[in-house]
Design a protein that fits this description.
Number of strands: 0
Distance between the termini: 83 Å
Strand content: under 5%
Number of helices: 4
Oligomer: single chain
Largest sheet: none
């Protein structure tokens, strides 16, 4: 039984892999540049005043994720185009996907777990502060 190339370990661990076609290389370049530029754009949006603190933190997390993933992808692109021994192995693309999943989990965890906890804590604090005397200086 012959396995397709993507399922062979030798495809992913080969230290001198066959180069990608120019069309795939251009697609990778555009994909990784889009990630990097999206990170910069989200960072600029986050700097705009008027955002709630929790939303601003979320935007900063998303911006850092996109920027790091874009830079890592562009580094992989350079290694691929220059055919650098060992560093142009396809296994690093699997590492990029793992990094993407880790960042996605980090952001989703912040949205589903951290934000509700912060909101609950703020509501409790506001309930208590409602009954405390106000400072007048």
């Amino acid at each position: 039984m012959v396995l397709p190339p993507l399922l062979r370990i030798s495809y992913w661990i080969d230290f001198t892999p066959a180069p990608f076609s120019p069309l795939i290389l251009r697609g990778l370049l555009l994909f990784f540049c889009a990630f990097f530029l999206a990170g910069i754009l989200v960072r600029l949006v986050a700097l705009r005043h008027g955002w709630e603190k929790v939303t601003r933190r979320l935007l900063h997390r998303i911006a850092s994720a996109f920027t790091v993933l874009g830079l890592a992808g562009l580094l992989l692109y350079v290694f691929e185009t220059q055919s650098i021994y060992l560093l142009s192995a396809r296994a690093f693309y699997l590492g990029w996907i793992a990094l993407f999943v880790a960042y996605a989990w980090w952001i989703i965890k912040y949205i589903w777990i951290d934000v509700p906890a912060v909101n609950k804590k703020r509501e409790e604090r506001e309930k208590i502060e409602k009954w405390l005397p106000k400072r007048t200086d």
